[in-house]
Specification:
This protein is α/β, with parallel strands linked by helices. Helices cover 27% and strands 25% of the residues. The chain has a single domain, classed as NADH:ubiquinone oxidoreductase-like, 20kDa subunit (Rossmann fold), CATH 3.40.50.700. The strands form 4 sheets. The chain has a 4-stranded parallel β-sheet. The protein is globular, with a radius of gyration of 15 Å.
Length: 150
């Protein structure tokens, strides 16, 4: 069974809504027929607070396998590269991405924002948003042009 973790950065949730409304396969089909274990999802995750944080830390430390890390939305780097405009589970989301992406067998960027920064990355970009591996049309993004998942 493939362990999947889904995080959301700066986003409108459109990709999540499309995923939840999918008909072929449905979310239930994915869970039961395709051998995917949803470790956590912003709309489906059962763990909250300290339970969720314990799971995220175990994955980040490599204590629990992470086969697929799905990320939707932009990586928000503001203010001043700290990422503190987008806090999640008591730390900036960019720190979670920095820790989890290298642990994952596969990293999947869902949607324009996660791929290249989408509309939030367009000037003046006060949130200093970027995609995982591209910033607009330029290779690089948050993970860097040379990042490759396991």
């Amino acid at each position: 069974m493939a362990a999947l973790l889904w995080f959301q950065g700066g986003a409108c949730s459109g990709n999540t809504m499309s995923f939840l409304n999918a008909e072929e396969p449905t979310v239930c089909d994915l869970l039961t027929d395709f051998g995917i274990e949803f470790l956590w999802h912003p709309s489906l995750g059962m763990e909250l607070g300290e339970q969720a944080q314990a799971l995220f830390h175990a994955l980040a430390r490599g204590e629990k396998p992470l086969d697929i890390f799905v990320f939707k939305g932009t990586v928000i780097r503001a203010p001043g590269g700290t990422g503190r405009y987008n806090m999640f589970a008591e730390r900036p989301m960019l720190e979670w991405v920095r820790m989890l992406a290298p642990q994952a067998g596969i990293v999947v960027a869902i949607g324009d924002c996660a791929c290249w920064g989408g509309i939030p990355a367009v000037a003046p970009n006060p949130s200093d948003s970027t995609g995982l591996q591209f910033h607009r049309r330029e290779p690089g993004g948050f993970l860097g042009a040379n990042f490759r998942s396991k």
